[in-house]
């Protein structure tokens, strides 16, 4: 069989935690669970043209006697507003809604599957970092962005979410990727902006650029009016996609 699912690290309340998954990558001491939510192939037969409800019925039966760390991802029923409210109460990142009669459309997104995010987060390409200040070691903040038709767009500075060990680990990775020119097409900025975080020509002298191939998962409160991240926090590195596919995600929250 070929399954579609996701590996998750669960916290003490049974909630999926991206940060715990990062701890596992560095220490291996976090128990993992594989949540299976779709069945693509079975006994050599391609099931992607079957309805989702049919595929999931087969999947549930196949996993009845699966090991504890391989679980069938169940479904929730109720109105969108009710489910989002409950998900928010439990501190979940969001929900995915899928039409029961939808097919498995590889490599494309359609309106049949919709992601609703409660905690705003997405991945960004890392294009550089600022030099450390004060008691900070290795680097000050990440300079992140996303792909657009015009090139790599600067989205802001990410300076929170780092331990000393993580700073050192990332800094080591960055040294192998250093480049002399800025990869962002919309830098430098004309001013420091309202919050004093703008990358002006003078500030660019305190930046080190890297080849934008590493992907950071970042949570944040909102996009500002000048299209930058407000209160961004680094969650970890992503290795499940290429940086060239990192684009700005639309917010599907009501």
What does this structure look like?
With 254 residues, the protein is an alpha+beta fold. It has two domains: 2-117, D-amino Acid Aminotransferase, Chain A, domain 1 (2-Layer Sandwich), CATH 3.30.470.30; 121-245, Nucleic acid-binding proteins (OB fold (Dihydrolipoamide Acetyltransferase, E2P), Beta Barrel), CATH 2.40.50.140. The protein has helices spanning 18-27, 52-62, 80-89, 164-175, and strands at 2-9, 32-42, 45-46, 70-72, 94-98, 113-117, 121-130, 142-148, 151-158, 178-179, 207-210, 215-219, 222-223, 229-230, 233-238. The strands form four sheets. Strands 7, 8, 9, 10, 11, 12 and 15 form a seven-stranded antiparallel β-sheet that branches. Strands 1, 2, 3 and 4 form a four-stranded mixed β-sheet that branches. A two-stranded antiparallel sheet has the order 5-6. A hairpin with a 5-residue loop joins strand 13 and strand 14. It is elongated and about 60 Å long. 20% of the residues are buried. The mean pLDDT is 89.
If you average the pLDDT, what whole number results? Answer: 89
Structural class, by secondary structure, is alpha+beta
User: What's the CATH class of the largest domain, please?
Assistant: Mainly Beta
Number of domains: 2
**CATH fold descriptor of the largest domain:** OB fold (Dihydrolipoamide Acetyltransferase, E2P)
Global outline: elongated
CATH architecture of the largest domain: Beta Barrel
Name the helicity range: 10-25%
Order of helices and strands: EHEEHEHEEEEEHEEEEEE
Distance between the termini: 37 Å
E-strand count: 15
Largest sheet: 7 strands, antiparallel
Poorly predicted parts: none
The CATH superfamily title of the largest domain: Nucleic acid-binding proteins
- What radius of gyration results from the CA coordinates? 21 Å
Give the strand content. Answer: 25-35%
* Annotation field: number of helices: 4
């Amino acid at each position: 069989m070929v399954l579609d699912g996701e590996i998750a690290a669960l916290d003490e309340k049974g909630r999926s935690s991206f940060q715990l998954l990062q701890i596992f990558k560095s220490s291996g001491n976090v128990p993992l669970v594989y949540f299976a939510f779709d069945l693509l192939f079975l006994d050599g037969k391609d099931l992607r043209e079957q309805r989702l409800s049919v595929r999931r019925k087969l999947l549930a039966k196949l996993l009845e006697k699966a090991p504890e760390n391989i679980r069938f991802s169940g479904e929730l029923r109720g109105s969108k507003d009710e489910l989002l409210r409950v998900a928010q109460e439990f501190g979940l990142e969001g929900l995915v809604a899928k039409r029961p009669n939808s097919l498995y459309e590889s490599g494309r997104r359609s309106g049949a599957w919709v992601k609703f995010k409660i905690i705003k987060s997405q991945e960004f390409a890392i294009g550089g970092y600022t030099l450390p200040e004060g008691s900070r070691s290795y680097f000050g903040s990440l300079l992140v962005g996303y792909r657009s038709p015009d090139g790599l767009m600067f989205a802001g500075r990410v300076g929170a979410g780092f331990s000393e060990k993580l700073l050192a680990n990332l800094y080591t990775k960055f040294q192998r990727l250093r480049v002399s020119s800025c990869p962002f097409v919309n830098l430098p900025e004309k001013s420091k902006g309202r919050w004093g975080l703008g990358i002006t020509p003078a500030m660019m002298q305190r930046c080190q650029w890297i080849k934008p191939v590493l992907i950071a998962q970042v949570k944040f409160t909102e996009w500002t009016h000048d299209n930058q991240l407000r209160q961004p926090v680094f969650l970890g590195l992503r290795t499940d996609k290429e940086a060239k596919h990192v684009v700005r995600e639309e917010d599907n929250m009501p």
